[in-house]
Design a protein that fits this description.
This protein is about 10% helix and about 55% strand. It is mainly beta. The chain contains one helix and ten strands; from the N terminus they run E-E-E-E-H-E-E-E-E-E-E. The protein starts with 6 loop residues before the first strand and ends with a strand. Strands 1, 2, 3, 4, 5, 6, 7 and 8 form an eight-stranded mixed beta sheet that branches. The protein has a two-stranded antiparallel sheet with strand order 9-10. The chain has one domain: OB fold (Dihydrolipoamide Acetyltransferase, E2P) (Beta Barrel), CATH 2.40.50.140.
Length: about 130
């Protein structure tokens, strides 16, 4: 069954995103966003609860975002949820890992410094003029 897999989460970064490299040398940026979600108290009344979503992005976008994103940054991330898979060395079986949003588009409310660069949805980079 085919379905739509596009998610939009808006909130604050829980910590500084982690920039690492894959085995092939590609940049990989992982982070976590905290967001408000409605919930119910024991008495049935509504209340705000905090939810969390992991995100990941690769390549030049990962390198560029790592320069701008910090703990507390307000972000809105969009993209499909992907679930990692890995080989269990003990059993030799494939296992599923954590779910994360693979960033297709991101908007963050902290301004880039003058002369800085902002990653775009198409993988390009918008360079800000020193105005």
């Amino acid at each position: 069954m085919a379905g739509l897999n596009m998610n939009h989460i808006s909130g604050n970064l829980v910590s500084d995103p982690e920039l690492t490299r894959t085995a092939s040398g590609t940049a990989k940026l992982k982070g976590r966003v905290a967001f408000d979600q409605p919930g119910r108290a024991a008495d049935g009344s509504y209340r705000q609860e905090t939810g969390y979503a992991n995100f990941v992005t690769f390549g030049k976008r990962a390198e560029s975002l790592a320069k701008h994103l910090r703990k507390g940054t307000k972000v809105a991330v969009s993209g499909p949820i992907r679930q990692g898979r890995y080989l269990d060395k003990k059993t030799g079986r494939m296992r599923t890992g954590e779910e994360e949003i693979e960033i297709v588009d991101i908007d963050f409310n902290n301004r880039a410094p003058r002369g800085g660069a902002v990653p775009m949805a198409d993988g390009g980079v918008l360079v800000l003029a020193d105005a």
